[in-house]
Amino acid sequence: MMLLVCFDLPRETKKERRQAAKYRKRLVELGFSMKQFSLYEREVKQQATRERVIEVLKEELPDTGAITLYLLPDDVNDNQITILGDKAVNKTFRQPRLRFF
User: Could you tell me if 101 and 22 are in contact, meaning their C-beta atoms sit under 8 angstroms apart?
Assistant: First the structure.
């Protein structure tokens, strides 16, 4: 299954921009890949891992931020269509480095 994270983090002040950058970096550390600027995904196979990742996302979310999580079954994710422009770069995916603080 894929866990899709959509988030909205304010970026009005320098502090908010720093918090947003830190949160995006943390998503990558947790094994998420960026689909769009505020849309990240990662594969989760075990329910315990999924629950722990969700807890970390809740704990580290800035006070003024909001996230929406979607759990996509494999058949939904396998049927997604990605359309790339002529000069778009197809991203490679990394293995997650699970570090729960």
Answer: no
How much is the pLDDT for 93?
A: 52
The domains of the chain, with CATH numbers, are 2-76 (3.30.70.240)
Angstrom CA distances, 20 to 2, 47, 83, 87, stand at: 23, 27, 27, 28
- Summarize the annotated binding site as residue ranges: 8
Give per-10-residue mean pLDDT for the chain (101 aa).
92 94 94 91 92 94 93 82 76 53 49
Residues 6+ apart with CB under 8 A from 78: none
- Binding site, annotated residues for Mg(2+): 8
